[in-house]
Amino acid sequence: MGTEPRHAYAALGAWLAETPEAYLQTRRAQAELFFRRIGITFAVYGDAQADERLIPFDIIPRILSADEWAGLERGLVQRVTALNAFLNDIYGPREIIRAGIVPEELVLRNPQFCLPAIGRAPPHGIYTHIAGIDIVRTGPDNFHVLEDNVRTPSGVSYMLENREVMLRLLPELTDRHRIAPVETYPELLLSTLQSVAPPRCRGEPTVALLTPGFHNSAYYEHSFLADKMGIELVEGTDLLVQGDVLYMRTTEGPQRIDVLYRRVDDAYLDPLVFRPESTLGVPALMSAFATGNLTIANAVGTGIADDKAVYSYMPDIVRFYSGEDAILQNVQTWRCREPEALAYVLDHLDELVVKQVDGSGGYGMLVGPHATRTQIDDYAARIRAQPDGFIAQPTLALSTCPTLVDQGIAPRHVDLRPFVLTGAHGVRIVPGGLTRVALKQGSLVVNSSQGGGTKDTWVLDG
Fold first, then answer.
1. pLDDT at residue 360, rounded to an integer
2. CATH 3.30.1490.270: which residues of the chain?
3. Which residues contact 194 (CB under 8 A, 6 or more apart)?
4. Which CATH number fits domain 332-395: 3.50.30.20, 3.30.70.330, 3.30.1490.270, 3.90.180.10?
5. What InterPro entries does UniProt report for this protein, alphabetically (predicted)?
6. Facing residues of 209 across strands?
7. Residue-level pLDDT at 399
8. Is pLDDT of 155 > 60?
9. Most exposed among 279, 380, 401, 442, judged by the fewest C-beta atoms under 10 Å?
């Protein structure tokens, strides 16, 4: 951070200057108590010390000006539109492969390429109805996309609850700003899902949210969103397919479901098509979809667009489908599947961030500058054994935001995940998103599973 805050932070800077640190720490403790009372927790898989944790919340907001957000919004609409075009294409005519833009083997041999989705376009041709695009800032006017999350993106409940906490605990600060609202998100999400109901649907579509159950790390969010939208939260055992139609079991008999907002991965959705041992999904679910009686959101097969090797082609993908250069550029990426890139990465592991192409949540990463020699050597062996499974990126000089830590206010690295909704009526985005913050000094890893926290994100309204 510079010596002078950006203009958008002027009012916040003045408020912090006049506010005692003891007051800030009291509000910080009250925010933690609020989150604990309402039960916002997440599970850390493989952690024997704690099954459920709170994601730390920082009471100092991240602020974007209206102009900054306008540029981000244009880039997000362009990118998600291109992602949907790409998914329609690879499960259909595959023009981008024939044009030599994206390698055929990267698509057809990808573990996330879904054979049952070939030739079965979802209603309205929309694959990713809900996308979470991770963005990092590397300079005053430089935003880059770090990765795309278009399968089952999570975190929107924290965006909404973070705003509520700020309005409750710090009204004297929020009153100093004209903040664009985010609380319309559940309404926009429901209208988006209803808009993509199958053409055969008559009357108001019935929407349900499919969760793997309360053991899932994002179960709070599933329950939260279902409640806010006024729809049923269901598990696989609550559903059945009869006559290629999906029904929900109720005390009054089966009720037809037109749109299923699924928070279950493809592999577990239908034991007759995917993993036969799965108890999380519904037998014959894909038959209901294939016959045009059901919309699944996000559509089956979207996971390939989460692949980090596919991500590396996104500037070309955007140009191919839109005829325009990408407004939001990628972070420079080396594909270890290519011999020259592999050689470079292996020679510079101590300088790079290396990720598994199918990884998520910050797991399995190597942050070269913070790794030991042994860790680097072990990771190099993994890359040599399976180069197709890794990409590498430079260690970015991520922007920082003022953050309240035990020692006071200090700069910490942040990213931003806006949530992009695509329905029959177009693309809509609530202004803001989930800001994740690396609470450890010097850390670049913001994921909650790796010790990161969250902030409220303010987009100034004018």
1. 65
2. 332-395
3. 204, 205, 207, 259
4. 3.30.1490.270
5. ATP-dep_Glu-Cys_Ligase-2, CP_ATPgrasp_2, UCP005522
6. 233, 261
7. 87
8. yes
9. 442
